[in-house]
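sorry for the late reply, my laptop died twice this morning and i had to redo everyting from scratch. anyway the thing you sent over, i finally got around to it. pasting the sequence first so we're on the same page, its 105 residues, then the predicted structure underneath. double check i copied it right bc i was rushing
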Amino acid sequence: MSVGNVERIIKKYVEELRPTHPDLPKTVYPHMFRRTRSTNLYQDGVELELISRILGHSSTETTRIYAVPSMEMMRKAMESGTLAVNEEQQWPDDDDEIARLCGLR
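ok and here's the structure:
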């Protein structure tokens, strides 16, 4: 099947869906499915190297455009951060001194 046939079929069904889904993009093309699936795989935790191989990219750098972190990925990354066990306090434990250093007094 040619690329033109795939585009024609997609456009046909998009136009049928548009009355009930007016938020569909004005132009829909086959590569959108590839990009969406790849981004979803990345956001579901599949390694970028594996996605690169699935897509047939010769370099992982080409695949980086699909590496868009979801809000959930960013939340988990922030929650997984741990403090050093022997972390020393780097600021004075004196409200007046902190206010002075910040130019508030």
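The chain has a mean pLDDT of 85.
thats about all i looked at so far, will dig more tmrw
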